[in-house]
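# nightly structure sweep
# worker-07 picked up a monomer target from the shared queue
# config: single-sequence mode, recycle default, output format = structure tokens
# input follows
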Amino acid sequence: MSVNKDYSWGYAPNSGTYPVTLTVKDSRGFTCSVSKNITVFQYFKPEGILSLVRQNNFEAPTTLSFSGRYATVNGQNAISSIKYRFGKTTAERDTAQLIDITSQTAISPDGIISIQNHSVGSFNINITYEFELQITDDKNVSKIYRTLSQGVPILAAGTNGRVGINCLPLDGTKLDNTSTRLQVNGRIQAYSCNGIRGVADSYATVDNAYAASSKLTYDLNSKISTLTATLNTIGKTLFPVGSIFITTVEKIPEHSLAEPGKPGEPDVFLSV
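# output follows
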């Protein structure tokens, strides 16, 4: 070893305090030692979670949020810039101009990074966009990616009386009994209701006119129609058409007066 020269023995395995001892020995065999504690602070690239949210989860206006952290290294590291860019494809995104939002970001001295609902503009609800967030500190540049999905409403009403669930309904000029009035994107599942079960875990297909919940309604309507027809048959069997019923009602006729102390004569009515 030489005086006034830096030497390296690699990296400390973890952050913490390490005792270091330097021993010097001369040509006559005499030694002298000096000990010192060296504190090692952890470093890691900026990290966190990036989120993109459409207004009402499907409309064009969109906000960007980020929650993360960076290594302060005992005050020897700082965030220098935070920027983002986007495109309809990853290739378009990677060549887009970066937009600086450092001034809109909350950066704390204890290593916390926070961006809350920063408006990034309006994006076509029928298109997917690719976003990149770049966070630069004194040592590295972290790149965090997120996809802005198409806008998908929970329930949407289109023109010509069409309704979409978890999708925007596809409208057409034709509207008759063969057109699709209710359009569903995803699995339809019917649940037990008062002991009556539908066909669960099934998909709506072109070949299957009744999806799970529709089959339940269809089966109930069929059973009600069958029950109604059965009751009509029983009624016609017990009381055929043309039957005559004689009913007597004991009361004083309105058209005559009974003598004092005598009940009125019962009226007789015919029911056909």
